[in-house]
């Protein structure tokens, strides 16, 4: 088999792996099912409010450190598979804990829930930079946008199906076996994704780099940011758009308070959001490959700002249909395109560090949501939407002014 044929096979396996893995977000959604589970186990509002903070910090914070050590070996696959399996085992363990102690010892189950999920997210975050390098070196740079897009679009289709499955499980089974079954099913999906990933062939070795001492790591990070003006502008623009993203948590609540909508309308919101994800993955993946990843990111940022603006000035519930459609376009592709952009900025051999640094940089900006919640409680949703719109518009302008790394040929080699 020649190299081109093998690369085509690798791309198909990466798409299958992504579709299976990402779609499990509909079986164990962090924003809905997990807070509900915490409540059922006796957790209060403070604990529920702490949950997203735990998820973000555990996932993002270890990435610079893990990226520092990722270049010690020439091949990435064995590390990705090994730690990917460990990360998935946490999900199985969590299902067992909920099934065994969810009803009889809820306090114990709640404690273990937090501990296990922290380890799960820390493992997932630690492997994220080297996983992206593994994907980059086993696929074609000219098709990477489409690959990331198809992963997201097919995952959204599966997520729609999984959403119906989750509803049936929660309805038909009694607590705690309904939650345990949903989490266990997510483990099966994620394990299947690992099987697809195992079929990817890593032909070429990567450059080996010696990890720097932790005391020198901050200096290395500063050198990377100072020496790459494209990457630096991208980080600043994306940070402002991330702050703007904090307002999306209040879209549904704002619609409910203004227009007294029913659960049926909330279901329509979800369908429109998923529709936006399905469409944006494919189309923005194509745009990234033909015009550059920056163009796809600009569309994502514009979609987010359109959603916020419509939520701010909505005169009827119909306006919120477009809010969630635009939001789906953003959420469907932005994360994947950010990974791709970071890879395009990175010199060969530095891809894990650029991805890890990007994610660690975003961590504190995701924590703006509690502040946005205080702003809502004190002044109302319109103030949050207006603030987010202004900050996001500045970020979008900076992103538009950021040079295109593909055009500047900073690092498109996948060798």
Describe the model.
The longest helix is centred in the first third of the chain and has 32 residues, at 106-137. With 415 residues, the protein is mostly helical. The protein is built from 17 helices and no strands. α5 (77-101) runs antiparallel to α6, α12 (263-291) packs antiparallel against α13 and α13 packs antiparallel against α17 (381-401). The protein has helices at residues 3-22, 33-40, 45-60, 63-69, 77-101, 106-137, 144-172, 177-198, 214-227, 229-245, 251-259, 263-291, 293-313, 317-345, 351-366, 369-379, 381-401. The chain has two domains: 1-211, Up-down Bundle (Growth Hormone, Chain: A), CATH 1.20.1250.20; 216-415, Growth Hormone, Chain: A. The protein starts with a helix and ends in a 14-residue tail after the last helix.
Any low-confidence stretches, pLDDT <50, length ≥5?
A: 409-415
Distance between the termini: 18 Å
Please describe the biggest sheet, giving its number of strands, its sense, and whether it closes into a barrel.
none
Q: How many DSSP E strands?
A: 0
């Amino acid at each position: 088999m020649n190299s081109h044929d093998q690369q085509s096979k690798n791309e198909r396996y990466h798409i299958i792996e992504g579709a299976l893995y990402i779609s499990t977000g509909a079986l164990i959604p962090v924003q809905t099912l997990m807070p509900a589970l915490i409540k059922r186990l006796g957790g209060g509002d403070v604990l529920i409010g702490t949950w997203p903070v735990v998820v973000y910090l555990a996932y993002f914070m270890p990435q610079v450190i893990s990226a520092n050590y990722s270049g010690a070996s020439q091949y990435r696959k064995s590390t990705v598979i090994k730690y990917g399996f460990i990360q998935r085992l946490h999900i199985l363990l969590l299902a067992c804990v909920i099934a065994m102690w969810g009803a009889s010892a809820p306090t114990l189950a709640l404690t273990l829930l937090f501990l296990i999920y922290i380890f799960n997210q820390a493992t997932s975050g630690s492997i994220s930079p080297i996983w992206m390098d593994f994907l980059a070196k086993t696929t074609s740079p000219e098709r990477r946008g489409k690959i990331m897009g198809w992963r997201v679009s097919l995952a959204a289709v599966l997520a729609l199906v999984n959403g119906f499955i989750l509803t049936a499980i929660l309805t038909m089974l009694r607590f705690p076996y309904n939650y345990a079954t949903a989490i266990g099913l997510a483990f099966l999906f994620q394990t299947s994704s690992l099987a697809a990933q195992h079929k990817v062939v890593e032909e070429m070795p990567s450059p080996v780099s010696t990890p720097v001492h932790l005391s020198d790591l901050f200096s290395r990070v500063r050198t990377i940011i100072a020496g790459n003006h494209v990457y630096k502008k991208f980080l600043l623009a994306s940070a402002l758009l991330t702050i703007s993203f904090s307002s999306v948590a209040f879209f549904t609540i704002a619609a409910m308070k203004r227009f007294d909508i029913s659960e049926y309308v909330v279901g329509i919101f979800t369908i429109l959001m998923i529709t936006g994800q399905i469409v944006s993955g494919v189309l923005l993946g194509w745009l990234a490959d033909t015009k550059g990843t920056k163009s796809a990111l600009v569309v994502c940022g514009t979609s987010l700002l359109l959603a916020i603006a419509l939520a701010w000035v909505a005169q009827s519930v119909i306006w919120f249909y477009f809010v969630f459609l635009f939001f789906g376009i953003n959420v469907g592709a932005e994360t994947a395109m950010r990974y791709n952009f970071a890879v395009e900025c990175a010199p060969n051999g530095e891809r894990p560090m650029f991805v890890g640094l990007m994610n660690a940089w975003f961590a504190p900006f995701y924590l703006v949501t509690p502040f946005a919640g205080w702003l809502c409680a004190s002044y109302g949703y319109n103030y949050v939407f207006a603030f987010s719109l202004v900050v996001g518009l500045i970020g979008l302008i900076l992103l538009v002014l950021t040079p295109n790394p593909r055009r500047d040929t900073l690092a498109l080699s996948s060798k």
